[in-house]
Structures are given as structure tokens and as C-alpha cells.
Amino acid sequence: MIKVLHFFKTYYPDTMGGVEQFIFQLARGCNRNGIESMVLSLSEHADDHVMQMDRHLACRAKTDFQIASTPFSVSCFSKFAALAAEADIIHYHFPWPFMDVVHFATGVKKPTVVSYHSDIIRQKNLLRLYKPLQRRFLSSVDRIVATSPNYFATSDVLSEFKSKVSVIPIGLDKTSYPLPAAERLDHWQTQFKGRFYLFIGVLRYYKGLHILIEAAKGSDYPIVIVGAGPIEAELKTQAAALGLKNIHFLGLLHDEDKVALLALCYGVLFPSHLRSEAFGISLLEGAMFGKPMISSEIGTGTTYINIADETGLVVPPGDPAALRQAMQYLWEHPQQAAEMGKKAGERYWHYFTADKMVDSYTRLYQELV
After folding, report:
1. Given pLDDT bands bounded at 50, 70 and 90, which one contains residue 345?
2. DSSP letters along 166-180, please?
């Protein structure tokens, strides 16, 4: 039995982002290969209880303060050290500068893996201060995993450490998603009669939703936005100022409702325009449900999932006119859209199942142990 300690700034049930979903799928799936996983995260609601998740465990240290979206915790040092002592492998999830500090302060002597989820894009001034620590941290770990060949090829940081980088795409287990009841399907089908486009995700600056709203001008096809986040209010203000009646903000929904909307939607929109979007879990969910996709070319995993003119359409980032044209094309060509959705589903089963991801990480863990 190999014991793995995952360390990331947030986790279920506090937050529901893409990295959290990745850790959940990996920890859950590795259990079948005899790997025991514990997830340590920070939370404002921390207590001393170990939570039983699906086939793995999770615990939380108390968040004391935040700087530039980075949570810090005093109690985390001792909690991490105790859990690391019991683990065979430490699995870090980058970026999170506080994690680097904890790594060095606790003197980790176990094999270490870093899943490299994203370059640091927005905090350029802070990055200049952090860069020496970042370089020292990545130099100190045993292996770094990029989530797509696209990101590995375009990241200046990863190019510095290419001798220790492996590429393992993120995978999802479709059976871990709930089957929506007929009444939930009927509810949403009634709510949005006929076809509609769907976006799912945290409403953050790099998701390109302001571009999507601009692109929706002059159209009448329904666009459903599922999720909440820091820019939700300004997006609603933008849509109202443009007088758009076809944009529907649904906020956070239960997984059953999310799956119902994925099953019913005509296509999945993913307008992220910055490299902060390193992969795109909800884009992959669209492929998993056999939907045609529209995304932007930003040199990341989004165009490893969505192959232009094969599984969907790919447009230049930050271009509302191009996005509008892509939506219009799919809307007016249902046969081509259906064929793209079919190929998206086939690509998911070939490259992006949780089993493929889990087996690759299992081999990596076994090599390190």
C-alpha cells in the first residue's frame, strides 16, 4: 500500500474548481490500485476532523490570512509535517507560494511530485519576488507533471526543468457523475425550450466571459452560464447594459443539475482568453458528454481537448466577433455540430478517462517509491 499526501490550497467541500476535481478524480481512482490518498488543504472552516471522501480522506488546516489570493496558515506547518511523516509520497499542486514555504520549512525527505497546473500570469510584480523561491522549489522536487503536451511546449518555466517533466493529461470518470432524474431533465428542458449553449465554471477574470457577453450581441440563441465567482456582479451588469435577454446566469448548481444541463445542451462554450486557463476541466466534461465545443487558442490544454474543426471550433482569444461567428456557424449547421460532438466523445474515451490518468500516476508513484 502506497500512501500519498496531496497538498493544495483548497479542496472539497469548500471549493469546487478544476484542480479540486482533478485531485478528487485522482485520489478516488488510485484507490483501486492499492494507493491510499490523503488531501490536506486550507479552510476558514477548518477543524480537527478527518473527512471521509469517495475512497480517500481529506483534512483541513485553518486559514489565518490571504495575500494576492494565496491563503496562509500557521497551524498548517505542524499538520503537514505530521501527515508527511506518515506518507510515502508528497504530491504538490502548483502554483501556491505558501506550499513552497511549507515544503522547505518542514524539511521534507520523502519522494515528491508536482502537478503543474498553471504558470503564474496575473501577479507579475509579486512573481518577480517569488521567482527565486519558485525556481528553488521546482529544482528540489523529484518529478513535475504537465497536464498537456501543449502546455509543456509553451511554458517558459517548464522548459527550465524539462529533464524531470512528464506529461499526464487530466482524466475524468464518467461513472462518478450522478445520473440526473427524469424530473430534473424535464425541468431544464422546460426552462430552456429547444437548443442552448452552456458554460460551466468559476466566474474569474481569465474565463473570458466578458468576451462571450459581447459576442452574444445581436443573437437570440440561449446562453446558459453555470457557476459563481468574483466577477459575477460585473458580468451581470455588462449583460444588463447591453440589454441581452438570452444570457441566463444560474449560479452554483448541484451536480445532478449540472449533468442534466450537460446532457441537454447543444454545445459547450469555453472562452478563456489567458494562459491562467491551463487545461479546462469543464471543457473536458463537454467532450465527455459528446458535445461540440468552442474554445480559444491560448497555447494550453484547451486545444489538446478541443481539436479545431474536428471536435469543435477554435477562435483567437479575446475576439468577440470570431466567437460570435463560431457560435452562429454551429447553430446553423446542426449536422456538422453533431459530428463534432461525436468525435469529441471519441477523443475523451481515447485520451482522457480517469483510468488512463490513474494508471499513469500509479506507475510514476511506483517508480519514485
Report:
1. very high
2. EE----B-GGGSPPP
